[in-house]
Amino acid sequence: MSTPKAVHTLHPYETREQYIHYIHVKHVNATLSKHLSFLQYTPEHVAGPGADIDPTQITFPGCACTDTPCLPGTCSCLRHENNYDDSLCLGTIGLEAKYAKPVFECNILCQCGERCRNRVVQRGLQFRLQVFQTDRKGWGLRTLESIPKGRFVCEYAGEILGFSEVQRRIHLQTAHDPNYIIAIREHIYNGQVMETFVDPTYIGNIGRFLNHSCEPNLLMIPVRIDSMVPKLALFAAKAILPGEELSYDYSGRFLNQISSEDKERIDPEQLRKPCYCGAPSCATFLPYDSSLYWFPLGKPDTS
Ligand SMILES: C[S@@+](CC[C@H](N)C(=O)[O-])C[C@H]1O[C@@H](n2cnc3c(N)ncnc32)[C@H](O)[C@@H]1O
Ligand SMILES: [Zn+2]
Ligand SMILES: [Zn+2]
Ligand SMILES: [Zn+2]
């Protein structure tokens, strides 16, 4: 078995400058260089074709906590309980809940300071991560440091798209192309569902290198800060050791369980790719969102 080769490392506080630096100066692999030459880096979502909401638009009012820390009951950003504990760990991680609870962090309009405990994802990368070449899955992302359970690891950022544009891009892909488009469906109330489509294929951050695992070490949680468009934040679902590959479950188990109707639509022969995650409970194929492939091209945006 060949040893996976490291190609570039990202230090804490991922910035555009650091990213460009590592890609253009420190990379040692011409293939990755070629692969990334068309990728425009963004640490945050950007509005793409058909996006309902501009993800950079400030939507939420701020809290008025000046003299007291942001706490449930007094802080308008915290409805029922703290999102994070004193060690910056997500409180609900590891709970056997069927769905993730919505997370609202304090935002740019809040009166509390930068050190407020309800500001975690907005602090950016805290651990040194590295893009490397895997044996069978293309590029992957691993950590160079230990990551405690519950800590924020990175975002999955990219272009926010409307449904028609998702359809258009999906139809341009071949069965062999890696797919980066992700659909997040959140049940809001009264049966209403909010859909967010993120595509880091052309414009994105390091989250695009995260591979799928049937036994992942990360969990994706929608987190809102300034905008109604959720940041797709990945938290450590367990303690992670230096050198371990980072992965999450593409099916969104926990957040976005596959319905039996969806399962019936799946055509394993044509659309499903083999999963090489290597987990004992591997489901053999990569999960995929059948609704992205099912509707005819040209379905109008709901915007
Ligand atoms: C978001 S990209 C992940 C980064 C990708 N490996 C790369 O080289 O850019 C998703 C694609 O990676 C590949 N991939 C991810 N997880 C995989 C797995 N467990 N087994 C096989 N291929 C995988 C598939 O081609 C998938 O469409
Ligand atoms: Zn507050
Ligand atoms: Zn606050
Ligand atoms: Zn698997």
Automatic annotation (TrEMBL):
<dbReference type="GO" id="GO:0140954">
    <property type="term" value="F:histone H3K36 dimethyltransferase activity"/>
</dbReference>
<dbReference type="GO" id="GO:0045892">
    <property type="term" value="P:negative regulation of DNA-templated transcription"/>
</dbReference>
<dbReference type="GO" id="GO:0045814">
    <property type="term" value="P:negative regulation of gene expression, epigenetic"/>
</dbReference>
<dbReference type="InterPro" id="IPR003616">
    <property type="entry name" value="Post-SET_dom"/>
</dbReference>
<dbReference type="Pfam" id="PF05033">
    <property type="entry name" value="Pre-SET"/>
</dbReference>
<protein>
    <recommendedName>
        <fullName>Histone-lysine N-methyltransferase SETMAR</fullName>
        <ecNumber>2.1.1.357</ecNumber>
    </recommendedName>
</protein>
<keyword id="KW-0808">Transferase</keyword>
<keyword id="KW-0479">Metal-binding</keyword>
<dbReference type="GO" id="GO:0005634">
    <property type="term" value="C:nucleus"/>
</dbReference>
<dbReference type="GO" id="GO:0032259">
    <property type="term" value="P:methylation"/>
</dbReference>
<dbReference type="InterPro" id="IPR001214">
    <property type="entry name" value="SET_dom"/>
</dbReference>
<dbReference type="GO" id="GO:0005694">
    <property type="term" value="C:chromosome"/>
</dbReference>
<dbReference type="Pfam" id="PF00856">
    <property type="entry name" value="SET"/>
</dbReference>
<keyword id="KW-0949">S-adenosyl-L-methionine</keyword>
<keyword id="KW-0862">Zinc</keyword>
<dbReference type="InterPro" id="IPR007728">
    <property type="entry name" value="Pre-SET_dom"/>
</dbReference>
<feature type="domain" description="Post-SET">
    <location>
        <begin position="271"/>
        <end position="287"/>
    </location>
</feature>
<keyword id="KW-0158">Chromosome</keyword>
<keyword id="KW-0489">Methyltransferase</keyword>
<dbReference type="GO" id="GO:0008270">
    <property type="term" value="F:zinc ion binding"/>
</dbReference>
<dbReference type="InterPro" id="IPR046341">
    <property type="entry name" value="SET_dom_sf"/>
</dbReference>
<keyword id="KW-0539">Nucleus</keyword>
<keyword id="KW-0156">Chromatin regulator</keyword>
<comment type="function">
    <text>Histone methyltransferase that methylates 'Lys-4' and 'Lys-36' of histone H3, 2 specific tags for epigenetic transcriptional activation. Specifically mediates dimethylation of H3 'Lys-36'.</text>
</comment>
<feature type="domain" description="Pre-SET">
    <location>
        <begin position="61"/>
        <end position="124"/>
    </location>
</feature>
<dbReference type="InterPro" id="IPR050973">
    <property type="entry name" value="H3K9_Histone-Lys_N-MTase"/>
</dbReference>
<feature type="domain" description="SET">
    <location>
        <begin position="127"/>
        <end position="251"/>
    </location>
</feature>
